[in-house]
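Appendix B, example 12.
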Amino acid sequence: MRARMIELSWLGLRVPAIAVELSCSQKTVRCWLHRFNRSGLQGLDDLGGQGRKRRITEEQRSRIISLVKTMPPGRLRWEPVGELWAFDEAGPPEWTLDSLTVAARAEGIEVGRSQVRRILLAEGVRWRRTRSWTRSKDPDFVPKGHGSSASTPTHPTTRR
């Protein structure tokens, strides 16, 4: 289409007629004619490198995603003798966007919290552990809610 603009211009057609012939705007025709006049045939090529460059590589993105699958350094674990311990008691017990950002920076990846969030959302990765407050390993635990004596009235009320 760009070469056709030049050809029609050489045949003597004016910008409005070229725009009608090629079903484009006059502004587009003028832009390409000026670029051709300035740079010749090379002016009709696409300019490479448009847009913002990625700040982190695909390998760094993969490392951020793989961090979520690791156990946070502050999460408590059971020792074989039955005691709780953590690799780093000052470290995060759960992965959050902030703790993932700190961990990524510790690995040399210059990334912001919002970028970590965008990466994880784009990949469909969950960075928060789902918690269920109705389950417990304690045999004496009785959940509140459906079926518990605390929420079920002893005498049903009737409406009239």
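Helices lie at 2-10, 15-22, 26-39, 58-68, 97-106, 113-123. Residues 26-39 form the longest helix (14 residues).
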